[in-house]
TrEMBL record:
Pfam families: FAD_binding_4. The keyword Flavoprotein applies. Keywords: FAD, Flavoprotein. It comes from Rubellimicrobium rubrum. GO terms for molecular function: catalytic activity; FAD binding. Gene3D superfamilies: 3.30.465.10. This is FAD-binding protein. InterPro entries: FAD-bd_PCMH, FAD-bd_PCMH-like_sf, FAD-bd_PCMH_sub2, FAD-linked_Oxase-like_C, Oxid_FAD_bind_N. The keyword Protein biosynthesis does not apply. Residues 1-171 form the FAD-binding PCMH-type domain.
Length: 368
């Protein structure tokens, strides 16, 4: 099903007699149970006010279209939505609703926050076929339950997003990358932490554990970026001499983990405190890439590896991103939750999707 309006979507949900596999462009590679329900027909920009840094867009609008429109006005989606098609080997067109539903955020999260942090408001249809509006079109303090941020990252299990209002930001005039060699994960995290704790406004901090390379990104006005780069390199000289390069550099590849795209094996995403990341990676093994200053790691391991089992106390922080259907069935995509969180999640799903229509089982962990 591909409804072309919110009213058609609401009617389709009310008429549904079984599970619905909710998605936008279905580029995430998750085999959801049920009849496909795509929001791709809900496309188009409803409102764009560059002076107010505000964009209201229908959920099925391709991310590429949104970025093109913003670029023409010298603006951007600051949270850097990921495109995992190369890594996952999928096709289709990523949509803005899919990005928000999965809270897909790139390296700039360390400075501007995740996708949910730029949400001003949202419209969605719940499991009863009722259209719900939450938030607004300007940034403001929110009282009560912030449904927009609740649905961000819910992977379509609480409702079908039809429209989002976002805060956008100006695009930078210049980009500079500082590259350090000879780092192990512990040294890399120390270097990245020092950079992120500095006053020099680092917008990306990543590490390639195989190559021992750490990269830091600065963005802004050309003159200011050059000065900040010199001062940051001086501050971090204890971690080695930095090579500098201008331009966009490798950050799109870092964002999309494209170095693992053509390599066999399963890919996991691990989220732990930077101060504990080196210990977690020692347990994980495999090929490793760090982002978010060491708060996120991508780990490539042989097919069928139970990485959660290897990780011990860090196991509940590992999400299976790429794997065969058999491995996903055996290990589950998402890790087990604490009992209190499981109960809260169940109550939320019961409230917003009482018939259990939306992506059933997608976020449920497998029994250990």
């Amino acid at each position: 099903m591909t409804p072309s309006s919110e009213a058609e979507l609401a009617e389709a949900i009310r008429a549904a007699r079984g599970p619905l596999a909710v998605g936008g462009g279905f580029t995430r590679g998750m085999a959801n149970e049920g009849e496909p329900l795509s929001t791709a027909g809900l496309s188009g920009i409803e409102l764009y006010e560059p002076g107010a840094l505000t964009l209201v867009v229908r959920a099925g609008t391709p991310v590429a279209e949104v970025e093109r429109v913003l670029s023409e006005a010298g603006q951007r989606l600051a949270f850097e939505p990921m495109d995992l098609r190369p890594l996952l080997g999928t096709t289709g067109e990523p949509t803005i609703g899919g990005v928000i539903a999965t809270n897909a955020s790139g390296p700039r999260r360390v400075q501007v926050g995740a996708a949910r942090d730029v949400l001003l408001g949202m419209r969605f249809v719940d499991g009863t076929g009722t259209a719900v509006s939450n938030g607004g079109r300007v940034m403001k303090n929110v009282t009560g339950l912030d449904l927009a941020r609740l649905l961000a990252g819910s992977h379509g299990t609480l409702g079908v997003i039809t429209e989002v209002a976002l805060k956008v930001l100006p695009a930078p005039e210049a980009t500079l990358t500082l590259t350090f060699g000879g780092h192990d994960p512990a040294k890399a995290v120390a270097c990245m932490s020092a950079a992120l704790g500095s006053p020099f406004e680092v917008t990306g901090a990543a590490h390639d554990a195989e190559a021992g390379v750490t990269r830091l990104r600065l963005e802004g006005f050309a003159t200011a970026v050059a000065v900040r780069g010199e001062r940051l390199a001086k501050l971090l000289k204890v971690w080695g001499a930095a090579e500098t390069s201008e331009g966009h550099g490798p950050w799109a590849a870092i964002r999309d983990v494209t170095e693992f795209a053509d390599r066999p094996g399963d890919v996991w995403r691990l989220s732990v405190r930077p101060s504990e990341m080196a210990e977690a990676l020692h347990l994980a093994g495999g090929a490793q890439r760090l982002d978010w200053g060491g708060g996120r790691a991508w780990v490539l391991v042989p097919e069928g590896t139970d990485l959660r089992g290897r990780l011990g106390r860090f196991g509940p922080r590992a999400v299976l991103v790429r794997a065969t259907s058999d491995t996903r069935a055996a290990l589950g995509t998402f890790p087990p939750e604490a009992q209190a969180v499981t109960m809260l999640s169940a109550r939320l799903r019961e409230r917003f999707d009482p018939r259990g229509l939306f992506n059933p089982g997608l976020m449920e962990a497998r029994a250990a």
